[in-house]
Model the fold of this input.
Amino acid sequence: MRKRIVAGNWKMNTSQPEGIELVKSVIEKSIVVPKAIELVIIPPFTHLSEIVKLSKGTSVKVGAQNCAEWSKGAYTGEVSAAMISSIGATHVVIGHSERREFFNEDNKMLYRKIKQAHESNLIPIYCCGEKLKERESGNFFEVVEKQISESLFELSKEQMLQVVIAYEPVWAIGTGKNATSQQAQDMHAFIRFTLAKKFGKDIADSISILYGGSCKPSNAEEIFARPDVDGGLIGGASLVADDFITIAQSF
Ligand code: PEP
Done:
């Protein structure tokens, strides 16, 4: 059975004291979430170490929002996967659409970041998804297929099993306009089919594929009910502990 995951991407929000209050609240409320659901908090870098300490011994895991494509060296301002791993974080988001758009991250660079994550035993949460223009022109399956093949197809089967995928249509991120559960299911099934062609059906069937894009308490249940949707990558709604927990209870 695939792991069901609800991950909260805080983006560049909260001061460190605010982040600590928020994670304490999430941890406290998380007792109502079935143990089988994995919760991952993804705060800004400055909060990571403190939040990892607070989450020790709880069911909440902690991830970073990005990592460098290199292991170490003269790359001012960058943070390596090894550094993230060394403080006890377990996950790292790779290829969020905001990184692709504002920092020109492309599929090949994202492959290098995924390799770095794996070398430091981090689970990459690899984001893919089409822009509005691509949805409207009807070539959204091709766009996502390219993102999947260029960033993931050089991995071994064993490495592929250590990847979580987040399908996040760019037009749904932070817009309040989520994909319908049918649109999410169709793309998730397509991603799984694409993975099966390369890595085999058993591996494709084992990979958790999360939906992201204006996922909130009012729509999570319908989206998570779809057979190929294994959870969510939650932006705005993860900044409110009650909303995040309600989403995690929506399976
Ligand atoms: C995200 O940033 O990954 C995201 C899904 O944001 P939101 O939930 O706010 O649309």
Remarks:
- The chain is about 45% helix and 15% strand.
- The longest helix spans residues 181-199.
